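Design job #97: recover the sequence.
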């Protein structure tokens, strides 16, 4: 079963840039042994790292230190980018948000070894988190996990296992891989990144950001995930925003800064500080929508702004009909067998999309994702 899941993940979720946009280099005499990256200008406050994972792969990571930072962001990027393309965005986020930032490439991306798979990404992010703890002395209660698109998968998986985690940011997140393509109403064993089943177990404030015109991962994904959050923060629904251009909108950086400021003022949470056990096998998930289904806000208006984290809210709506808004653009499938056949017969698209990062007065071109990342191009019936 795990093999089928990994095959589906590789087919629909992963599009590593080929060739990679950078190479790992070794610095010269003055800083002997220090790693660098070709194609980007690294500041003195930036470290390039190679980290070993539990599955035998070696992932490349970048740590950007901000001397004014009180919090550290661990950023999991989208599915068609690597560190060479994301570096400028990472540096700007670190500067504008006044945070330390750690970004990394999944196994099989950039100069990271191995092949992309769902389970590999879980071990990748855990290795990066361990590095923050052991090398940089970052405490769990000072970490914010940031997941963009596919990156919401490893982000939420790790978040469920960190009881003292400070906060989570989900940027154009997916409910699950299968739900991006088809309006299924339950979780199947062969689905990937079952975020909809994991998010109720995250015990920290969560900010959800999504574009209302996202034509890759429908806006309903962000709304449904936000409804299931235990500790909701005012979401950011960017009117007219698509899947890869949310950084272009001035409200993006403004709202994220507001969230970071609120988190800095909040009290760190207490807990064991231990990562819960995780095996190499896919974990069983429960479809929470069968027992408790929250209402989805169909209006584009956000709730009144507040700098304080909202108290956890319990869902009381048990009606299944609120789930019918998921991905209205797709037709319902008649059977699971036909669904699996369609999945196995789909060829992934190749064309990646460019996005522009514009923070403050700076503008740079950054390839952030594959605009057709989840959409089947051919179906065998």
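Job complete. Output follows.
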């Amino acid at each position: 079963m795990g093999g089928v899941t990994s095959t589906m993940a590789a087919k629909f979720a992963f599009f590593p840039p080929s060739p990679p946009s950078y190479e790992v280099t070794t610095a010269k005499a003055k800083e002997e042994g220090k790693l660098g990256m070709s194609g980007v200008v690294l500041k003195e406050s930036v470290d390039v790292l190679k980290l070993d994972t539990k599955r035998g792969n070696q992932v490349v990571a970048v740590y950007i230190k901000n001397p004014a930072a009180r919090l550290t962001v661990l950023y999991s990027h989208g599915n068609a980018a690597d560190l060479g393309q994301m570096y400028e965005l990472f540096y700007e986020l670190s500067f504008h948000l006044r945070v330390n930032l750690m970004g990394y490439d999944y196994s099989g991306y950039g100069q990271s070894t191995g092949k992309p798979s769902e389970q590999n990404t879980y071990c990748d992010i855990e290795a990066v988190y361990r590095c923050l703890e052991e090398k940089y002395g970052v405490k769990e209660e000072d970490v914010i996990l940031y997941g963009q698109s596919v990156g919401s998968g490893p982000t939420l998986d790790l978040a469920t296992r960190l009881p003292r985690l400070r906060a989570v940011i989900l940027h154009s997140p997916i409910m699950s891989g299968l739900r991006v393509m088809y309006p299924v109403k339950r979780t199947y064993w062969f689905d990937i990144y079952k975020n909809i089943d994991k998010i109720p177990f995250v015990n920290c404030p969560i900010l959800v950001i999504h574009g209302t015109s996202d034509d890759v991962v429908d806006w309903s994904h962000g709304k449904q995930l936000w409804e299931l959050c235990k500790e909701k923060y005012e979401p950011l629904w960017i009117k007219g925003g698509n899947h890869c251009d949310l950084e272009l909108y001035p409200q993006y950086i403004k709202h994220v800064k507001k969230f970071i400021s609120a988190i800095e003022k909040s009290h760190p949470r207490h807990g064991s500080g231990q990562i819960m056990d995780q095996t190499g096998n896919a974990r069983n998930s429960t479809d929470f929508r069968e027992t408790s289904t929250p209402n989805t806000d169909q209006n584009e208006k956000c709730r009144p702004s507040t700098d304080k984290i909202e108290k956890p809210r319990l869902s009381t709506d048990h009606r299944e009909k609120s789930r019918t808004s998921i991905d209205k653009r797709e037709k319902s499938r008649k059977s699971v067998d036909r669904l699996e056949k369609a999945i196995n017969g789909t060829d992934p698209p190749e064309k990646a999309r460019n996005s522009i990062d514009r923070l403050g007065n700076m503008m740079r071109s950054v390839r952030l994702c594959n605009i057709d990342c989840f959409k089947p191009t051919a179906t065998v019936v």
